[in-house]
Design goal:
A hairpin with a 2-residue loop joins strand 4 (56-61) and strand 5. The chain has helices at 41-48, 91-101, 106-114, 117-120, 136-149, 166-179, 192-198, 220-229; strands at residues 3-12, 15-25, 30-34, 56-61, 64-65, 76-79, 154-158, 184-188, 201-206, 209-215. It is α/β, with parallel strands linked by helices. The structure holds adenosine-5'-triphosphate.
Length: 230
């Protein structure tokens, strides 16, 4: 079990926004988290990454509580929002900085980035612009590429398709599918089509609770659509 969640709760005021008794993720799984606005997806991801403290319960990464042991940071990469970027750097400077944290030289980083030219669609590198001056979608591309560059064992992405144009959404799906099996991927998405296409397992959350947890098959998209149209 690479990730385990036990009796995890986050309470704000009188509202329990995450309430997960037990969740186990096996290494190599591609898991999609779906649920309406306010279901608790982002709050849950923030607890997986020790960005906020649970009110109760624990998140174990390779058996260690993420709050007490930082080893998970060596093999986990994530992009939840633009807060993960550094606004006053150019994308190149940001990639070099992130690379340096993972013992990658400037040459390693440039070599790595060549495979992203299609994903970047000519809009990211050599623009001379700071990250803050990019569109939201292009900022997302920088964040996702930087996360993948770390060759993580666990990748966590919050609504990665949301601000991407359709062409880039498809390119991102291909990137994620190419990594499937080598990496444990946890993504949240409101795009039922994309999430069922990429993920082998879907977890449906409502008011912080897991309502359904199932393996994706040819009926999954239809089941999810009927669930959400009710
Ligand atoms: N810091 C906070 N203080 C109080 N309430 C919060 C806080 N952060 C989140 N919440 C509440 O927790 C609930 C879950 O929010 P969260 O952002 O985790 O949902 P989500 O499933 O990611 O939603 P979306 O699909 O809209 O991104 C919401 O009702 C939200 O208002």
């Amino acid at each position: 079990m690479i990730l385990e969640v036990k009796n995890l709760q986050k309470v704000y005021g009188d509202k329990t926004v995450v309430n997960i008794d037990d969740l186990q993720i096996v290494a190599g799984e591609t898991v999609g988290l779906v649920g309406n606005n306010g279901a608790g997806k982002t709050t849950f991801f923030r607890m997986l990454l020790d960005l906020i403290r649970p009110t109760q319960g624990e998140v174990l990464s390779k058996g260690e509580n993420v709050m007490h042991n930082g080893d998970w940071k060596n093999y986990t990469a994530s992009f939840l929002d633009e807060g993960f970027l550094i606004d006053y750097l150019t994308p190149e400077e940001y990639f070099i900085f992130i690379g340096s944290l993972h013992n990658m030289s400037v040459a390693d980083v440039s070599a790595y980035l060549t495979q992203y030219s299609e994903f970047f669609n000519g809009e990211i590198l050599n623009s001379g612009k700071y990250i803050r001056d990019f569109s939201k979608g292009n900022q997302v591309k920088v964040g996702i590429a930087a996360a993948l560059m770390q060759k993580p064992e666990i990748l966590i992405l919050d609504e990665p398709f949301a601000n991407l144009d359709p062409t880039t959404q498809i390119r991102l799906k291909n990137l994620l599918k190419a990594q499937a099996g080598n990496m444990t991927t946890f993504i949240s998405s409101h795009d039922l089509n994309h999430v069922t296409d990429v993920c082998h397992r879907i977890i449906l959350v409502e008011k912080g609770r897991i309502i359904k947890d199932f393996k994706t098959d040819e009926n999954t998209l239809q089941e999810l659509e009927s669930y959400f149209s009710a």
